[in-house]
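Data deposition worksheet. Section B asks for the primary sequence of the deposited chain exactly as it was used as input, without tags or linkers unless they were present during the calculation. Section C holds the resulting structure in token form. Section D is free text for depositor observations; keep each observation to a single sentence. Incomplete worksheets are returned to the depositor.
Section A, Depositor: J.P.
Section B:
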Amino acid sequence: MARQIKIGKKDPRVLFGSRLVELRKAREWSQEHLALESGLARSYLGGVERGQRNIAIVNICRLADALGIEPSELLRF
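Section C:
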């Protein structure tokens, strides 16, 4: 049985996910569109946006590249 981890609103994974949603929606992109542009699985991307995944730096860079921004923009929360 998988262990459930309680995620708080100040958790950096939650803050990162919220920022990613904000930037994605500003472009009027769906999760599926961003997944296709970045080469990441949509289900993985959904977990990142919900703060359930501890995203690797390489994937932060892939998302930033797909969004046409610097990786540091994803960390402005």
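Section D:
The chain has a mean pLDDT of 93.
The CA atoms of residues 17 and 48 lie 6 Å apart.
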